[in-house]
Design brief:
Number of helices: 4
Structural class: mainly alpha
Largest sheet: none
Number of domains: 2
Oligomer: single chain
Radius of gyration: 17 Å
């Protein structure tokens, strides 16, 4: 009997962070998006990531610690 979405999600949450990221990429890659637009979106995201890394490394922007980001997200759900 196939697992439910809820069961699969629970299993996924128990994976190490790096495996969860790989799983997310596999799921995104398996969607039926037009491959040309998907390739273009990937290229644009790659450029965005490079830009953000340059800004962080140069000190132009300051990163926010992951725990603070999580706290802010959780606070947003409570309102």
């Amino acid at each position: 009997m196939p697992k439910t979405l809820s069961q699969v999600a629970q299993d996924a949450v128990e994976l190490p962070a790096s495996d969860r990221m790989k799983l997310a990429r596999l799921i995104l890659d398996s969607t039926d998006f037009d491959s040309a637009s998907s390739d273009q979106a990937r290229k644009e995201w790659d450029e965005e990531i490079k830009t953000r890394l340059r800004e962080l490394r140069s000190g132009q922007v300051v990163g926010v610690p992951l725990e603070e980001v999580k706290r802010r997200i959780e606070a947003g759900f409570k309102s």
